[in-house]
Amino acid sequence: MRSIRKSACVVAAMVAFTVSSGAARAELLIKVDQSTQRMVVAVDGAQLYEWPVSTGRPGFETPRGNFRPNRMDADHYSQEYDQAPMPYAIFFDLNGHAIHGSFDPIGRPAASHGCVRLAPANAAKLFALVAQQKMGNTKVEISGDVQVALRNMKSIKTARAAREPEAPPTGELLIVAPDGSTRILDSRASQNPLYGLY
């Protein structure tokens, strides 16, 4: 009877340990969509953040696939690209690709040499989250195609250009009235009543 009770206690302790250790281990998922230049960060399926990113340019594409971080460096500088700062670097493959902060504009596609760039404040949050959840519990999924993002960006620029009036030739000033009508004045003419006004 005593051995049955002892065995039951051991089994109960093992189950409790398994349940408690499973509850403490959360799965951190970092999803990067190159087509939209967006990153979504979720813990156990609950989305915490969504941020703009900038991924690799043609010829230096960000690798697609599923990865696990293998190294972290809060104050990293690129040995390949003129000691460029890569704050809060989370390396996710063995070829030196990382998710890291960047002081360049974020959200513009085809900007990096293959890394995933984030605003420095967002990179710091992500770095702290990976440190807390552990690299072994973190999964990085990279999908999409930067060419789609480039085509979308070109379409947006074309649409904006179609809505905006054409710039006047050099030396002429385009005046847009409150009613939306436009007229061109020669800004070089000294008799122009608007000459010199900003």
Protein model, in words:
The structure is a single chain. This protein has 198 residues and is an alpha+beta fold. The protein folds into two domains: 26-155, L,D-transpeptidase catalytic domain-like, CATH 2.40.440; 165-198, no CATH class. Helices cover 28% and strands 30% of the residues. It is built from three helices and eleven strands; from the N terminus they run αββββββββαβαββ. The protein is globular, with a radius of gyration of 27 Å. The model is unreliable at 7-23 and 185-198 (pLDDT under 50).
- Count up the domains: 2
Portion of residues in helices? 25-40%
- The count of helical stretches stands at 3
Which structural category fits the helices and strands? alpha+beta
Roughly how many Å is the radius of gyration?
Answer: 27 Å
Number of strands: 11
What is the CATH superfamily of the largest domain? Answer: L,D-transpeptidase catalytic domain-like
Gross morphology: globular
Overall average residue pLDDT:
79
Low-confidence stretches: 7-23, 185-198
Strand content: 25-35%
Quick description:
The chain is an alpha+beta fold.
Secondary-structure map with pairings?
Blueprint: H1 2-24, E1 28-33, E2 38-43, E3 46-52, E4 65-67, E5 71-77, E6 85-91, E7 98-101, E8 116-118, H2 120-133, E9 138-143, H3 146-163, E10 172-176, E11 182-186
Short key terms for the protein model shown above:
alpha+beta, L,D-transpeptidase catalytic domain-like, 2 domains, four-stranded mixed sheet, about 30% helix
